[in-house]
User: Which sequence fits this backbone?
């Protein structure tokens, strides 16, 4: 096979169908950018889970005098020193518990003033209205139910709360957004495949005389089909390259010069450049192979050789 002839045929085919080739490049670029973005979003959610789940606590809130008068769970009165000692002893015996920190009512009041000092309610609260609590760090955050079962309903305990539940709602939202991006990506991918098939069909039809002559002089099917397949592969590779550019620009502008500069988001552990660079070969490979395979199967129907 003469490489020069094949390359010249690729150039001719791309120029003849410039508009459709451009549409293929744009569709492939957008669909693969969404694909790569979805993979990075999944990595980001996993990174955030590992970071935050390692820091979440289970809180056991103890009854105070105000709770004893208002909350049925504290109907037996405020927690006693004996009950607190027993709760602490039982916690330390549990194999799922890593550390236990006791927060007094005065400490809880101080933390509340630091976080919500501007709230209208802060001026009406007093330290004796705040609840004492035990802040428990678990060895495995998934074992919250073990602690909840052991201490919910015990005398002196008002409630057992798991901070992981709040994070789960956030991660479910992020996962939902990720699935939505994948759905849009799938739609764009179908559009790109349809454009590739149509482009190959138009190209094959416009060059039916040349392919007929090649067939008469004994050219093999592979030799005749190769320029069309390579045209689609080149267009897909260009689209894959653009998708890689979108991912790199997105990481640079959205995270490096956007989210990471926000004081409200400085506690989030964002994915690094290594995670982005690791996805680029996959994006390029799909950008190259997907159009080539689509063209190959389309030629079996539209190019009779």
Assistant:
């Amino acid at each position: 096979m003469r490489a020069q002839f094949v390359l010249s045929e690729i150039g001719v085919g791309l120029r003849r169908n410039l508009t459709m080739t451009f549409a293929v490049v744009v569709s492939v670029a957008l669909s693969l950018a969404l694909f790569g973005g979805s993979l990075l979003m999944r990595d980001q959610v996993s990174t955030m889970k590992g970071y935050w789940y390692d820091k979440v606590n289970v809180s056991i809130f103890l009854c105070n005098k105000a709770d004893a008068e208002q909350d049925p769970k504290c109907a037996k009165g405020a927690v006693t020193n004996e009950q607190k000692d027993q709760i602490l002893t039982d916690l330390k015996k549990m194999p799922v518990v890593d550390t236990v920190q006791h927060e007094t009512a005065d400490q809880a009041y101080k933390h509340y003033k630091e976080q919500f000092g501007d709230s209208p309610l802060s001026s009406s609260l007093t330290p004796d209205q705040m609840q004492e609590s035990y802040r428990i760090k678990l060895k495995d955050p998934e074992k919250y139910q073990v602690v909840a079962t052991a201490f919910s309903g015990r005398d002196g305990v008002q409630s057992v709360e798991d901070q992981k539940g709040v994070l789960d709602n956030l991660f479910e939202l992020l996962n939902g957004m990720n699935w939505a991006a994948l759905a849009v990506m799938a739609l764009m991918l179908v559009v790109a495949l349809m454009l590739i098939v149509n482009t190959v069909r138009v190209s094959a039809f416009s060059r039916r005389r040349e392919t007929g002559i090649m067939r008469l002089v004994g050219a093999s099917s592979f030799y005749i089909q190769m320029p069309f397949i390579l045209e689609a592969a080149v267009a897909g590779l260009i689209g894959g390259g653009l998708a890689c550019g979108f991912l790199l620009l997105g990481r640079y502008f959205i995270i490096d010069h956007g989210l990471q500069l926000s004081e409200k988001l400085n506690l989030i552990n964002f994915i690094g450049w290594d995670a982005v660079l690791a996805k680029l070969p996959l994006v390029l490979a799909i950008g190259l192979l997907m159009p080539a395979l689509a063209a190959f199967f389309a030629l079996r129907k539209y190019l009779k050789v």
Remarks:
- The beta strands are 58-62, 97-103, 133-138, 157-162.
- The two ends are 17 Å apart (CA to CA).
